[in-house]
């Protein structure tokens, strides 16, 4: 599969919205990039093709987060881990619907395209003002 | 052993570390430089210091960027080139390395390097968010992975691969709080028990509250010069004989190993080769214990113990004061505190005090060769330096 879409992180997330897990394969040296990047760090080529990546993999490591930034605090405690996909690529992410006891290194996991929406908040500062 | 000295340290200063209410970063930094200037009466700061590098991690804490000239101003040095070096928690380790570049290049004979961070006025949630900015945004921060979470994942993998236990990891906190109890500038100066560490609540399993370094305000600095000029300023210079700095992928997920920091290994080899030392030549070290587990991993990456054996090594007591290689006699990031930008040169400050035998109750006897190990983020930067007493 080959398209004109740019080989960028933004495009990676756009594909995810379409329920596709895609990586960029360098046409010169063959290295597969997840996330995709516009210039190959191995051979500096700018020529790539999109390849579909399997969402199945095994858990390499994990943690359960109890203290989180504001926008994730409501989800605590939540599990995150690094998953090695079937073709060897690695990707981190949240692991949903699991308990601490169920988590085991080596367990099989599958990427779910369901999104976990969050909002960004910036600090609110108290400001003074001048009045007539 | 006996590497050629790269530069000499002629003075150093450090503010009290802790919750310094009402003081801004620039004000805290001026307390560190004041000590360094006072300690070195033969130095005329305004005329002798030709450049400055300051480690400062985050604009977010005080809504203040451009810290180079700000800190130079409050140090009474306006006019000299003053540059901020940002490498997350290794920002002042990178400042030190930059200072060495400047002195060795011949562009500046005397250079002030240091670091500062003001953090305690922010909530834990805010600090967690700001610190996470030093990790990968699109794949780590975006998915709720925190800094403790990254080191927790390394600890999980180490426990799985080598059988390391939560109790062994917790020993680092117990040791460093004991050391901190002997350091009047430490944020926390009281001992804690293994039971207290184990009973503290989880921040990111398997790391608990007492496995985490402190949110602290503080500043530190060091004055460097050419070795041949050192005697002009002091009778007790300390030489830097090895300097290494290295980088790795920003994302933990992209790295080959989850139980070792390759940047530390690369920087260590660089510094050891330059200094002509082996791990067994190091008399004491300040290592980057942003989390207890990070200290154990550092033992392995620095070659202090075999790979996979750091749990047993800390239990042996060899890294406690009185042991073969005392580590983090200052109390480390865990008890002395971790004002992130200030940490690298605060480590140097401790080694400097130890090597000139002014470390008070925590003095290591006959220490001749010291090491500092400063890590940025989850290990995308590491800076390692080797120091030697001049006489």
Radius of gyration of chain B (CA) equals 19 Å
Query: What's the tally of helices of chain A?
Result: 2
The succession of helices and strands of chain B, N to C, reads: EHHEHEHEHHHHEEEEHEHHHHEE
What is the terminal separation of chain A in angstroms? 66 Å
What class, by secondary structure content of chain B? alpha/beta
Structural class of chain A: mainly beta
Helix content, binned percent of chain B: 25-40%
The biggest beta sheet of chain A is recorded as:
4 strands, antiparallel
The total of helices of chain B stands at: 13
Number of domains of chain A: 2
Low-confidence parts of chain A, pLDDT < 50 over ≥5 residues? Answer: 116-126
Radius of gyration of chain A: 19 Å
Assign the CATH superfamily of chain B.
Thiolase/Chalcone synthase
Number of strands of chain B: 11
Question: What can be said about the biggest beta sheet of chain B?
Answer: 9 strands, mixed
């Amino acid at each position: 599969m080959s398209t004109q879409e740019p080989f960028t992180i933004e495009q990676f997330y756009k594909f995810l919205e379409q329920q596709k897990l895609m990586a960029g394969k360098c046409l010169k040296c063959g290295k597969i990039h997840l996330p995709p990047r516009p210039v190959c760090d191995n051979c500096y080529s700018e020529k790539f093709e999109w390849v579909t990546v399997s969402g199945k993999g095994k858990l390499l490591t994990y943690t359960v987060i109890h203290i989180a930034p504001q926008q994730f605090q409501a989800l605590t405690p939540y599990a995150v881990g690094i998953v090695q996909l079937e073709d060897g690529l690695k990707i981190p992410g949240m692991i949903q619907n699991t308990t601490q006891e169920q988590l085991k290194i080596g367990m099989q996991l599958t990427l779910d395209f369901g999104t976990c929406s969050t909002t960004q908040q910036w600090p609110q500062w108290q400001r003074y003002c001048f009045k007539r | 052993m006996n590497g050629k000295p790269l530069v000499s340290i002629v003075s150093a200063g450090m503010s009290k570390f802790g919750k310094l209410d009402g003081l801004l970063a620039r004000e805290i930094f001026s307390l560190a430089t004041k000590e360094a200037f006072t300690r070195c009466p033969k130095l005329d700061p305004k005329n002798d210091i030709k450049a400055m590098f300051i480690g400062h991690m985050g604009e977010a804490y005080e809504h203040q960027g451009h810290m180079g000239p700000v800190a130079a101003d409050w140090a009474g040095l306006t006019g000299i080139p003053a540059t901020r070096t940002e490498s997350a928690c290794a920002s002042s380790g990178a400042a030190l390395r930059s200072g060495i570049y400047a002195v060795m290049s011949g562009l500046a004979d005397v250079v002030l390097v240091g670091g500062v961070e003001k953090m305690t006025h922010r909530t834990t949630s805010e600090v967690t968010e700001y610190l996470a900015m030093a990790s990968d945004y699109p794949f780590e921060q975006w998915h709720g992975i925190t800094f403790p979470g990254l080191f927790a994942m390394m600890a999980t993998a180490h426990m799985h691969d080598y059988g390391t236990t939560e109790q062994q990891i917790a020993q680092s906190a117990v040791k460093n709080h004991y050391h901190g109890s002997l350091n009047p500038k430490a944020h926390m100066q009281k001992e804690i028990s293994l039971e207290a560490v184990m009973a503290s609540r989880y921040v990111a399993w398997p790391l608990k509250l007492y496995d985490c370094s402190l949110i602290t305000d503080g500043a530190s600095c060091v004055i460097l010069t050419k070795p041949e000029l050192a005697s002009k300023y002091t009778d007790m210079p300390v030489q830097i004989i090895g300097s290494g700095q290295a980088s790795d992928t920003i994302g933990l997920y992209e790295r080959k190993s989850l139980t070792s920091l390759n940047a530390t290994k690369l920087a260590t080899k660089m510094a050891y080769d330059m200094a002509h030392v082996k791990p067994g030549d190091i008399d004491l070290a300040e290592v980057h214990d942003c989390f207890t587990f990070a200290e154990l991993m550092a033992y392995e990456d620095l070659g202090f113990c075999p790979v996979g054996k750091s749990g047993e090594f800390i239990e042996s007591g060899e890294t406690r004061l009185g042991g073969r290689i005392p580590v983090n006699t200052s109390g480390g990031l865990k008890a002395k505190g971790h004002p992130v930008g200030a940490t690298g040169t605060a480590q140097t400050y401790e080694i400097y005090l130890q090597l000139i035998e002014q470390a008070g109750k925590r003095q290591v006897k006959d220490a001749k060769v010291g090491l500092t190990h400063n890590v940025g983020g989850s290990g995308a930067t590491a800076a390692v330096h080797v120091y030697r007493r001049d006489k």
